[in-house]
Amino acid sequence: MQNGHSSEYKFDNLDRTVTNVVELLKRMGLTASVAESCTGGLLSELITSVSGASDVFELGICTYSEKMKNQMLGVPMELIEKYGVVSSEVASSMVSGLKRISRADVCISVTGIAGPGGGTAETPVGTVYIGFDVCGEHFVRLPELWKLENKTRDAVRRSAAAYAFGIVEKMLMEAIQSNE
After folding, report:
1. What is the pTM of this model?
2. Do 148 and 156 contact (CB within 8 A), yes or no?
3. Most Cβ neighbours (<10 Å): which of 20, 21, 51, 66?
4. Distance between CA atoms of 143 and 160, rounded to whole angstroms?
5. Which residues contact 33 (CB under 8 A, 6 or more apart)?
6. Secondary structure (H, E, C), the chain
């Protein structure tokens, strides 16, 4: 599942999805951390809005600038220069750095273009790479948020959050089902 489907980033049920993720993490005895860029702390805000999040939430870091991605998460400047800050490679490096410093079981990184400006023909508004490290399974996804009808900054950011938490929810539910 490299790219998402439009139903995966509907944010009508975002609060419920995040609550489910926190409850699943608690049930499984797991922790979570996030490293955000274009979502600007939204994932952290959503997690901490759930009662009991302190049992599972380790770290939320907003590394908006290239310099902070490098200094805080260890993303090599050469990687940023070669692939661009909005790239699969940078999202992967961000989540690896987050995993290294937080040691959380579930790590999510987000880098992208929320708009309304900043997009190009090659990298339009809504290009968002989301890095995951879920219990040692490391991967990056590119949901097709540039296809959203509503490409406001808020819609792109909330859709990225919905996509990220939806992936984690699905993986945790599958892990529980396979252990039953």
Report:
1. 0.93
2. yes
3. 21
4. 8
5. 57, 58, 59, 60, 61, 98, 99, 102, 104, 106, 107, 108
6. CCCCCHHHHCCCCHHHHHHHHHHHHHHHCCCEEEEECCCCCHHHHHHHCCCCHHHCEEEEEECCCHHHHHHHHCCCHHHHHHHCCCCHHHHHHHHHHHHHHHCCCEEEEEEECCCCCCCCCCCCCCEEEEEEEECCEEEEECCEHHHCCCCCHHHHHHHHHHHHHHHHHHHHHHHHHHHC
Residue in this structure with the two tokens 């991967």, named with its chain if needed: 139
The dihedrals phi and psi of 133, each to the nearest 5 degrees, come to -135, 100
Confidence band for 10, pLDDT divided at 50, 70 and 90: low
pLDDT at 129 over 50: yes
Structure tokens of 102?
Answer: 């937080």
Q: What distance in Å separates the CA atoms of residue 93 and residue 8, rounded to the nearest whole number?
A: 24
- Conformation bin of residue 113: beta by default, left when phi > 0, alpha when psi is -120 to 50: beta
